[in-house]
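The protein record quoted for completeness.
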Amino acid sequence: MGMTAGERLGLDIKRAEQALMAAKSAALKDVGLTVAQYAALLALSGNPGISGAALARECLVTPQAMAGVLKHLEERGLIARSAHPYHQKMLETRLTEAGTDTLRRADERAVRIERRIADALTPEERDTLRDLLARSVTAIRAD
């Protein structure tokens, strides 16, 4: 096998990710958003007019998955999509007033979870964790 179960880090990383996603999912439920929808609104708040494909890259999902997320958000009136002024086949996506309000309420809940993580670590440990995770990603992609 080459590595004992105790030497493997994948399960620890997955457990942390699942705990984070479960906590955010529960926190966002009363706002009526999924984690993917929240991530899209958050990304849109910093990138108004972004295309669906670019938004998918920003949120680390496939364009097909993002298309479903955007469809739902548009149906709820949280985003508006319009043709790009120069590239008519490209749709620009922007938050509506309702989307901005929903994002604000959702972000209050999500930040509480992020704050609990941050408060469990010193600033130096947070920097170290970010570095270790980045190095892990690099190592995974190296093969």
